[in-house]
Amino acid sequence: MKVAVAGCCHGALDKMYETLELLQRRHNVRPDLLLCCGDFQAVRNEADLRCMAVPAKYRHMQTFYRYYSGEKKAPVLTVFIGGNHEASNHLQELPYGGWVAPNIYYLGYAGVVRFRGVRIGGISGIFKSHDYRKGHFECPPYNQQTIRSAYHVRNIEVFKLKQLKRPIDIFMSHDWPRSIYHYGNKKQLLKMKSFFRQEVESNTLGSPAASELLQHLKPTYWFSAHLHVKFAAFMQHQTNSKEELPKATKFLALDKCLPHRDFLQIIDIEHDPSAGDSLEYDAEWIAVLKATNSLVNVTQSSCNMPENNGLHAKWDYSATEEAIKEVLEELNHNLKIPCNFTLTAACYDPSKPQKHVEPVHTINPQTTEFCAQFGLTDINDRIQQAKEEGSVRGEYEEEEEEEEMDSTGSAEEPSEYNTDNSGLSSINPDEIMLDEEGGDEDLSTCSVDPSPDHPPDFSASFSDIRIMPDSMAVSSDDAMDSTNEEPEKSGVSKQVEEKSLNERPLKRIGGNENGNSGIKKIKRRNQAIYAAEDEDKTE
Length: 539
Known about the structure:
The chain is α/β, with parallel strands linked by helices.
């Protein structure tokens, strides 16, 4: 079957679907599935805009609300993960995944589904070490900290995915797996994006958690976005035994969704011809969710995941064949995901703007039904209970002092990873700067700028689409460029990369139970992956 893959769409759904229709008219190619690698921006109304971590001047309604309201319907089944520019309050309603609109499915904080026998997994958000071990405690209305921490990857999601044993066909992450640039044409990448050089040479660009998942899951394809540049790599995995067949991953990072940009990729995937056309649950993933349900944490307290270090009675939460069989029996061997999309918020009305509406914490019926069916913890219900009991606060203690610093370290929880810079620390002339701890922009206000009703003009160029060849492997010249060079790592970085997810014990740095240590907090800057308007105009 044909699968279309998109990078950061930034709410421009009309643009994506119009491009797919144009592809069919001009090339007689009709994808069966569309995948989006984050920054989807499922914005329903003005309250959702207030929950998106960008300065007010970059908050635009775009076109998702038309699909949410039913005015339009996605012409192809669309599956997406979250990025770092999302309506976090909307996606938070569906921690285990669910429909955000008819025919548009969100994978949740982490998830695995099946379509026509193809196994598709993904993890939402970006990596930040200072939030990695915390629970999902955030809820709207967000403050200046939680509006960002809400989309930071947590160790429990990585732990769940590492329990999977069966092969994965496709995996998606928003930020790149760290070190993946050593397996493609690194020279060309740095030629296109010279400001990546510092991170590439120090091997700190990308997510170490995603890198660990890449090495564990060994999917056939891995797709990412976030950095707004197209890049292909081919990674041959090491085998653990002589009997194990060699595996390789074809990696592709996608550009953002803009006119005259190569932002869509079409690939051919082997599928099960006897499988239906419905999106399906993955039995092993459901079994893992059930097995790890006791590990759910909705507090700011940091905790390690279980490991075989003598401190935990159980550390293997992988699904047994018996557990998978039980899931199948619970579902009567019908794995079809119900089409139970429900409106949970008012839809944007251009004729009646509501600029001062406040976001509220909502429990989505889809999540309630899913948790009841499989005996899982409804994370949002647990947060609500904790709030009522006064045990969870969305507010941070006032910081005693802030310091300017680059994003290569953390003064908070020690991490098994030596850096905290999934956002770039180098200056990217094509991007705007976002102050992660606040700044001149008021995040509590929003500017609504609905997209024009008329479709964009595609007559000038049709460079948005490229048909994926049989192999995504880089050319021999590309391979020589990367394989003849030893990955440039500092000694500390190399040692840390070799450690597994939980090798280092968690150490607390004084302070109270909420982790406020009384030491100086570090003011961080996140370079959001948004292109400057001037660049867009020149494209």
